[in-house]
Design a protein that fits this description.
Length: 314
């Protein structure tokens, strides 16, 4: 049984998958398996993955019809054997000591959840050698309160910075929609896990213009974000999470609305009006549920959202 299961969903990842896999295979910690979930790729991704399985027996490939990243992560989790699990995007990479450091903190503190910083500038890819016990870190049982951009120790949404005790995630699954990472992170935080937040940036993000986040605007993006917000509402509207719910309204929901507004602005003329109409209907529903406040969005955004509701919603 490997100690760590690294789960990598891949869809049309031919351009980046070698960069991603090589960063895992070059880890200083070696007791791991890699579960690659090929999500119906139409390029050469599957061929590349099969070649890697011949090079290293720790790599396994699950081949499925296209079902989305959330479904792929869940399938990878179900096939995992490690005591710990780590979800890595197929176009990202990790520091050579990433698994060593995350495993060290998870084991020493018997943590459910360990996360670190993320670097989005490839030129700053660091190969510095770290002594784990010398790294700056924070221990908390309420990681939700470290979503703030002002936090010295920050919990981000992307899965590539998060390391979990596998048993802890047993009942926490990714929703089957795009942008599944923010609702999953919120659900993790609602469970009040014993969490270590490491300040150092050990994960490296690639700005991939072909990814869902950076692809051409389409209606599905608005619907998928809406599905994620509804999942968060289901979780945090429980009476025992009333205080955390206030934080979500002022810090999480505004972060989730911001990219949707951008998708609408950048949409082609042929669908722009419909994009705004769908977004306005989402805003109307969220406003009626008390999820849109001036304090979280700022006066300018708040007024824009109210105007969209007034003039674009059904």
């Amino acid at each position: 049984m490997p100690d760590i299961s690294v789960i990598i969903p891949a869809y049309n990842a031919e351009k980046y998958i070698s960069y991603c896999l090589d960063s895992v295979l070059n880890q200083t910690f070696t007791d791991f398996e890699i579960i690659c979930v090929n999500d119906g790729s139409k390029d050469g991704t599957l061929n590349l993955l099969n070649e890697y399985t011949k090079k290293d027996s720790r790599i396994k490939v699950i081949n499925q019809e296209n079902q989305g990243c959330g479904y792929s992560r869940n399938n990878g989790y179900d096939a995992a054997n490690g005591k710990y699990v780590y979800f890595l995007d197929s176009d990202d990479a990790i520091h050579p000591q990433f698994l060593e450091i995350m495993h060290y903190f998870a084991k020493i503190y018997n943590a459910d959840f360990v996360c670190c910083g993320m670097e989005d500038n490839p030129e700053k890819y660091s190969k510095e050698h770290y002594i784990p016990e010398n790294l700056e870190y924070l221990l908390t049982f309420n990681p939700l309160y470290y979503f703030s951009r002002k936090s010295k120790y920050r919990v981000y949404y992307p899965p590539g910075i998060k390391f979990y005790r596998r048993e802890f995630l047993k009942n926490i699954k990714f929703i089957k929609a795009s942008f599944e990472d923010f609702s999953h992170t919120c659900e993790v935080c609602a469970a009040k896990p014993k969490t270590i937040v490491i300040k150092e940036k050990l994960s490296f993000y690639t700005i991939n213009n072909g990814s869902v986040s950076h692809s051409k605007s389409k209606l599905k993006q608005i619907y998928d974000y809406y599905a994620g917000i509804n999942r968060i509402y289901e979780i945090y509207s429980r009476s025992e999470l009333r205080q955390e719910f206030k934080y979500v309204i002022n810090n999480v929901i505004p972060d989730v609305l911001r990219p949707q507004s951008g998708f609408c602005r950048r949409a082609d003329k042929s669908i722009k009006k419909e994009m705004y109409r769908v977004f306005a209907n989402e805003l109307k529903d969220l406003y009626n549920r008390g999820l849109i406040h001036i304090s979280g969005n700022g006066l300018k955004k708040y007024l824009i959202y109210r105007c969209l509701i007034a003039f674009m919603a059904d």
